[in-house]
Amino acid sequence: MTKQPNWKKHLVAALASGFLAINTVVAFAAPVELSLEESIKMALNSNPAIKIADADRKSAELQINIAKGGKLPALTLEHSDNLAHSGADSDTDFVNSISLKLNLYSGGKTESDIATAKLKLKVTDSVVAQSKQKIKLDVTNDYFTILAAKNTVKVSQEAVDQMEAHLKNVQSQYSVGTVAKSDVLRSKVELANNQQKLIKAQNDYDLAVSSLNNVVGLPLATEVQLKDELKHETYTLSLIESINYALSHRPEVIQEDYNIDVAKETIKYAKGGRLPDISATAKTGWHDRDFPGADNNNWSVGLLATWTPFDSGVTNAKVKQSDSGLIKALEQARQTKDSVQLDVRQAYLNMVEAEKRISTSQVTVEQAEEDFKIQQVRYSAGVGTNVDVIDAQVALTTAKTNYIQAMYDFNTSKANLIKAMGVPAE
After folding, report:
1. How far apart are the first and last CA of the chain?
2. Which residues form the signal peptide (predicted)?
3. H or E element: which one contains 160?
């Protein structure tokens, strides 16, 4: 009897092969190369915060159409079926009507509604711009964090390589009896310390890459290669020029200015309650005892005026309430402008401070490199100590790390300054 093939085994084997093939493709996928500009564009196109802000803007845009409806005619169709009973008699009445109403005058309330809706759309536009600038700052900071982490990994690897070379030198001298065993032990300890720092630096780099992937919308495990490098590009505007630019372009400042205008329109709307409402109406209808009620036509046209000269002080209270809203908007605008100036000043001064550290740390690196070489030569010649070499190596690593930190602080402070000024993200 011929043995039937086990189809389940074939299916499992096929699925396993496909899974292995997919993972092989992923494993050998080329790294994604990104410049800072490309990273920002990707984030602006995919980040949920931008899409949420765009949805709010669309809602504000539609609110203008809703407000404009107050100035357009409204057509109403109505049908009713009625059964009346009185004593022993019952009667039916089927009624159809078409009515048209057009507001002619609302005391300025409709106009205020439209103006307020347009102003709120502008507020929403500034919120969208603010969201984009925040995303741009996040991407920029993450990008520079990766660059700094990458350079730190390089410095840590150099420190490990230097201590490995030094340890070999110490061991060779110990083997011929020219140095003590303590030199070997101390060198091994220092090598282990540097290896620990390298492990941490590599982990910091991996975390930084995952953070950037999250912001730009890539899978977190995506390997990226950055096209840009940490560099020093001088900022040309003065502090006063930066502050003046921020007061004219920062979205938060623009929002508060529009909110003041909204508060003024709210006052106009409240005052409209003191004035009459006038509208034109036209109506035609049919009614009959038999469904659908298509006989006995009647029609009417007219003007309807409504005025409430006395409402127990409700309108006056609304006006005073709106006045308080204007005062609040004015104070919030002043508070926001003060906060914006502080943001710009802090970012500017941090950038200047980091810029000064760049030049001093550059010189320190050069001096530390020369000192490390000297201490290596002295130790090999037997006139220097192991501690001198280790201290010189630690000083060199510290100097390089300080330079990387200064470059990182300069670039991120500059990015914060650009955000604080309200420079458009696109």
Report:
1. 75
2. 1-29
3. helix 109-175
The pLDDT assigned to 91 comes to: 80
Q: Looking at this protein, which amino acid is placed at residue 361?
A: S
Superfamily of domain 32-75+106-275+313-421: Outer membrane efflux proteins (OEP) (1.20.1600.10)
Split at pLDDT 50, 70, 90, the class of 25 is: very low
Give the position of tokens 């009667």: 91
Residues in a beta bridge with 281: 101, 302
CB of 293 closer than 8 Å to CB of 96 = yes
Q: Residue 417: exposed, middle, or buried by beta-carbon count in 10 A (0-12, 13-18, 19+)?
A: buried
What one-letter code names the amino acid at 155?
A: V
* Residue 9 pLDDT class (50, 70, 90 cuts): low
Cα angle, residue 95 at apex, residues 92 and 101 outer, rounded to 5°? 160
Rounded CA separation 417/415 (Å): 5
pLDDT band, very low/low/confident/very high, at 19 (cuts 50, 70, 90): very low
Question: pLDDT, tens digit, for every residue of 119-151?
Answer: 999 999 999 999 999 999 999 999 999 999 999
Nearest to 414 by CA among 175, 292, 235, 191: 235
Q: Is the separation of the CB atoms in 378 and 388 below 8 Å?
A: yes
Q: How far is residue 215's CA from residue 145's CA, in Å, rounded to a whole number?
A: 13
What percentage of the chain has pLDDT greater than the value 70?
92
Domain ranges, ordered by start, for the chain: 32-75+106-275+313-421
Query: What's the pTM?
Result: 0.81
Q: What element of type H or E holds 50?
A: helix 48-68
Asked if residue 405 lies in contact with residue 350, where contact means CB atoms within 8 angstroms, the answer is no
Q: How far apart are CA 352 and CA 416, in angstroms?
A: 13
Cα–Cα–Cα angle for 335, 337, 338, nearest 5°? 65
Read off the DSSP letter of residue 258: H
Residues with Cβ within 8 Å of 389's Cβ and at least 6 positions away in sequence, in order, are 166, 372, 375, 376, 379
Contact yes or no for 96/285 (Cβ under 8 A): yes
User: Strand, coil or helix: what is 224?
Assistant: strand
Q: Cβ distance 88 to 95 under 8 Å?
A: no
The DSSP annotation for 59-97 comes to HHHHHHHHHHGGGS-EEEEEEEEEEEEETTEEEEEEEEE
